[in-house]
């Protein structure tokens, strides 16, 4: 699933330890003790293979052998498992750089400024270019949710718009043109409904895969090592996904057991979008129509409130980042 690649600097920072990466199985890993020291977290407390750390602002839970890491009760789907080598637990440098660092140090994200526009979109199911790029999406009532967003208190002063209205299929190319023409900086949030096979509904959020990470539905390919234009927004995408996934999950009343978390994908919308873009995917329980979750007024209100809270939280972080530069 992963090639060796990361943007996390190994240079020393004042008052912080120098990273000492270790090559294991062809990948670079960092000892978890060095991670906690660098970010000012408490030493990990271990119960068998389950570890917990934090600092009053951040809570981190993980497990050796697992690709699931929880940050402030939001699940992150790592590209490689946490491992233990000669008794020392390690996290891959890729996952630290691309998934944890943007959340723990939003002030270090380059180009991170408050968003002026939220663009609400809807995506067809399927995350491969072959399956999804040629399909047209039958719209649900995006404009109604946009109207609800416009009526909410927005601390960041952003505007809201939709990639399409009600009444006709809209191609991916048309939606991308709307995104390209929107006032910048803009965040695209595409809401997808997928029919599930499990007993309960699940919420998942997707960001564009960094160079060196494949789509979760297939094996790594040589082309995955090439950086895409959208990879310039990797850190912003991750920060946006974490903020909005957490608030939408809370507003929908989805307990932790139904949290599919934040992960990486090469969905064609993510690949081709000119702006930071995330996909929020609602996977229904078996036998239920996934699009009906927002068929009620209460469902649409919950979605709008979660999106608004998430973007306000994100814009506050961006404002702090601006002040640190």
Question: What is the topological layout?
Answer:
Elements: E1 22-24, E2 27-31, H1 32-39, E3 45-47, E4 50-54, E5 59-63, E6 68-71, E7 74-77, E8 83-85, E9 88-92, H2 93-104, E10 117-123, H3 129-132, H4 142-151, E11 159-162, H5 172-181, E12 186-194, E13 202-208, H6 234-251, E14 259-265, H7 268-272, E15 277-283, H8 297-324
Parallel strand pairs: 10-11, 10-12, 12-15, 13-14
Antiparallel strand pairs: 1-2, 2-9, 3-4, 4-5, 5-6, 6-7, 8-9, 13-15
Helix pairs in contact: 2-6, 4-8, 6-8
Describe, in plain words, how this protein is organized in 3D:
With 325 residues, the chain is of the alpha/beta class. The protein has 2 domains: 22-96, Copper amine oxidase-like, N-terminal domain (Copper Amine Oxidase, Chain A, domain 1, 2-Layer Sandwich), CATH 3.30.457; 117-324, 3-Layer(aba) Sandwich (Aminopeptidase). Helix content is 29%, strand content 24%. The strands form 3 sheets. The protein has a 6-stranded mixed beta sheet with strand order 11-10-12-15-13-14. Strands 3-4-5-6-7 form a 5-stranded antiparallel beta sheet. A hairpin with a 4-residue loop joins strand 5 and strand 6. The longest helix is centred in the last third of the chain and has 28 residues, at 297-324. It is globular and about 60 Å long. The protein starts with 21 loop residues before the first strand and ends with a helix. The model is unreliable at 1-7 and 126-139 (pLDDT under 50).
């Amino acid at each position: 699933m992963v090639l060796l690649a990361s943007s996390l600097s190994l240079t020393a920072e004042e008052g912080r330890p120098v990273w000492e990466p270790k090559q294991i199985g062809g990948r670079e890993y960092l000892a978890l003790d060095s991670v906690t020291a660098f970010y000012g977290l408490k030493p990990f407390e271990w119960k068998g293979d389950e570890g917990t750390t934090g600092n009053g602002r951040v809570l981190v839970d993980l497990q050796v052998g697992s690709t699931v890491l929880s940050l402030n009760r939001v699940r992150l789907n790592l590209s490689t498992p946490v491992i233990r080598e000669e008794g020392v637990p390690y996290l891959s440098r890729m996952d630290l750089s691309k998934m944890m660092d943007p959340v723990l140090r939003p002030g270090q994200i380059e180009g991170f400024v408050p968003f002026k526009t939220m663009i609400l979109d809807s995506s067809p199911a399927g995350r491969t270019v072959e399956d999804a790029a040629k399909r047209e999406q039958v719209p649900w009532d995006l404009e109604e949710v946009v109207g609800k967003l416009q009526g909410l208190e927005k601390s960041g002063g952003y505007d809201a718009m939709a990639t399409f209205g009600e009444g006709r299929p809209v191609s991916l190319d048309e939606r991308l043109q709307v995104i390209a023409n929107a006032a910048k900086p803009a965040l695209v949030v595409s809401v997808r409904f997928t029919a599930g096979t499990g007993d309960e509904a699940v919420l998942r959020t997707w960001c564009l895969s960094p160079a060196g990470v494949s789509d979760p539905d297939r094996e790594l390919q040589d082309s995955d090592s090439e950086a895409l234009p959208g990879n310039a927004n990797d850190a912003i995408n991750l920060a946006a996904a974490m903020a909005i996934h957490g608030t939408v999950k809370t507003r929908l009343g989805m307990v932790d057991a139904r949290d599919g978390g934040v992960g990486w994908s090469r969905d064609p919308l993510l690949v081709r979008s000119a702006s930071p873009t995330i996909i929020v995917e609602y996977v229904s329980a078996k036998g239920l129509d996934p699009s009906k979750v927002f068929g009620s007024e209460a469902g649409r209100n919950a979605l709008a409130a979660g999106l608004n809270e998430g973007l306000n939280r994100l814009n506050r972080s961006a404002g702090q980042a601006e002040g640190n530069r």
